Amino acid sequence: MANVLVTGGTGFIGSRVCDALHQKGDTVYVLSRNPARAENKLNASKAVYGWNPETEKLPTEATSNINAVIHLAGETIAGRWNAEKKRKIRDSRILSTRNLVASLADMDTKPDTLVCASAIGYYGGNDSESLTEASPAGTDFLAEVCEEWETEAQKASELGIRVVMVRIGLVLGLGGGLLQQVLPPFKMGVGGILGNGKQWMSWIHIDDVVGIVLHALDSTQIYGVLNATAPTPVRNTEFTKTLGAVLRRPTLFPVPVFGLKLMMGEFADFIVLSQNVIPERTEASGYEFYYRTLESALNALL
After folding, report:
1. End-to-end CA distance of the chain
2. Domain for residue 96, yes or no?
3. Which of 22, 124, 153, 158 could be bridged to 116 by S-S, CB 3.0 to 4.6 A?
4. Total domain count for the chain?
5. What phi and psi values does residue 235 have, to the nearest 5 degrees?
6. Are the beta carbons of 199 and 152 closer than 8 angstroms?
7. Is 87 exposed, middle or buried (0-12, 13-18, 19+ CB in 10 A)?
8. How far is residue 97's CA from residue 81's CA, in Å, rounded to a whole number?
């Protein structure tokens, strides 16, 4: 049993991570911009502390007697991108991680482990080859954000802290993630392929995201990067057909890229990004997936 400090604990992934930590007997402390709202939402936390991640170090009362930190805070990338939205995406990850690590440096007794979220956006788009934890960073906006984000997290290793970065893929779960974006049109029978449908989608069930985060936390031999994606990425055409079949809805209405761009601006480029990401190091570290196929994941959820 450990004392674990969680940032982003009220989010789509974070709230489930807090529940899982609580269920296995760990004591959970949460940092939030809005402590009152967090206390109302979370039953699994021992205490909630206020923190503005872009401008402040951690409150000192949150850093006493902590064995590990799970850093999940970050502005959602969903929605129309403009200059302000991109600034929030960048600052909420990079500045928060910088302030977090600076706070860890100030602690007399430092935690053993930092598990920091990252994203498969790190790799950029690549349709021609599989991407593993050893693949290089891409060059687009999200790739640059992820690379800088991980660089800030990795500085904690200089303090003697074990650091694991979990690069999260397209998360399937109810109440957030990818399905929140795509389910409404599919349920209405107007879902369809995005663009030409050939782009790879590196999906993962929410239970496996939580499982990999806890695996990274508890497996003291793991350092560095783990991909949080299922072992069987699919083309968008297969994703569309499988989701339609599970929902028993037609998938006749393709969405052209120009239509996505009208709705979402630059975010549309990310929606049709092709990434065939394989969790090579994750599986080699001993993690066993709950959901290895898209059909099993969608059937469990829907």
Report:
1. 34
2. yes
3. 153
4. 1
5. -70, 155
6. no
7. exposed
8. 22
Exposed/middle/buried for 208, CB within 10 Å: 0-12, 13-18, 19+? buried
Q: Can you list the pairs that 63-66 forms with residues at least 24 positions away whose Cβ atoms lie under 8 Å?
A: 63/5, 63/103, 63/104, 63/106, 63/107, 65/3, 65/109, 66/3, 66/4, 66/5, 66/29, 66/107, 66/111
Closest CA relative to residue 50, chosen from 63, 40, 59: 59
Q: Are strands 45-50 and 234-235 parallel, antiparallel or unpaired?
A: unpaired
Rg (CA), the chain: 19
- The CATH number for 148's domain is 3.40.50.720
Three-state secondary structure string covering 99-154:
HHHHHHHHCCCCCCEEEEEEEHHHHCCEEEEEECCCCCCCCCHHHHHHHHHHHHHH
Identify whether 292 is part of a domain: no
pLDDT for the residue 265: 78
Q: Identify residue 179 by its one-letter amino acid code.
A: L
What is the span of the domain harbouring residue 143?
3-171+203-229+277-287
- In the DSSP assignment, the letter for residue 265 is B
Residue 77 domain-assigned (yes or no): yes
Two structure tokens written together for 141: 């906006």
Q: Is 207 left (phi over 0), alpha (psi -120 to 50) or beta?
A: alpha
Helix axes 236-247, 177-187, angle to 10 degrees: 60
**How large is the greatest C-alpha to C-alpha distance in the chain, in angstroms?**
60
Kind and range of the H or E run holding 172: strand 170-172
pLDDT tens, residue order, the chain (302 aa):
899 999 999 999 999 999 999 999 999 999 999 888 888 888 877 889 999 999 999 999 999 899 999 999 999 998 888 899 999 999 999 999 999 999 999 999 999 999 999 999 999 998 889 999 999 999 999 999 999 999 999 999 999 999 999 999 999 999 998 888 888 888 888 889 988 999 999 999 999 999 999 999 999 999 999 999 999 999 999 999 999 999 999 988 888 888 777 777 788 888 889 999 999 999 999 999 999 999 999 999 99
